[in-house]
Amino acid sequence: MMKIFKKDKTKEIRNERPLERERLNKSTSSSSSSHNNNNNNNQSLRTLRIFRINAVKNPNDVPHFDEFQVPVKRWTTVLDALLDAKSYQDSSLGIRYSCRMASCGSCGMKINGIPRLACYTKISDLDTNTITCEPLPNFPYIRDLVTDFSKFFDHHRSVMPFIQNKKADIPDVNELSEYQQSPQDLDKFLQFSYCIKCGLCYSACPTVATDLKFPGPQALSQAYRYFADSRDSDKSNRLKVIDTSHGIWRCHFAGSCSNVCPKGVDPALGIQLLRSHLLGISNSEKKIAKLQDRSNNNNYNNFYSEELEEEEEEEK
Length: 316
Fold this sequence. Notes:
By secondary structure, this protein is of the alpha+beta class.
């Protein structure tokens, strides 16, 4: 009877990388002069200090840091280095990531003390030989660098992040229609629509650290995003949600949220604009967009011709 032996792939993989590092050290030592002339193009080693905890399996687990030596090049990101450590040294390392192009917001973590996206942070830009990776503050731990976003998304849902308009539901599914929205109307909220829900602003906010009921800069900036949208007609209810003792007035305007935002959303600006509307400083009158029937192309073209005429009159 044939015996089947299972190959230990873990040992095979772990033994492969040290050999590559040994070859790397030999090659760098033999050509030290060329290495000194072109440091950025050659591979080198950096130290990763990674926060380790398993709060789900053991709620009493004591956090600690593990160090890993990883090879890096000029274009290596922190996420690349973390995945190298996970693939070749410790497969139990907990990391959350997805797109690798700063679009999904999954790989947010504290890198050398600052909330950043791991896929958007190059190690060469950090200008240090030791990179410390920790989970985002103000979020409950799950495992290692993975945190629980449940409370964060609860706050996001509380501000009703969707268009509210009685005409939004079109009874005739065959009818081709759209809201009339000019480029000027779009510019009022476009910047705030770039939010990818990475949680960096939430982790940097000092008020979130002291008040769990505070919605946070992400939710409040999205509240303004839909408040300023000309397609939305539920202004009063939106303001009621945030005008509470734990709402928008708890913001101390530290500005940390805007400093760490990777997409330039500037949540602090959205919060201040909302406050100005609540205080009556800004003009709160908003022209609600009309539903345009695109079945007739003549009507569609007439809308934009009317918009151009209105712009010309305003310029005069």
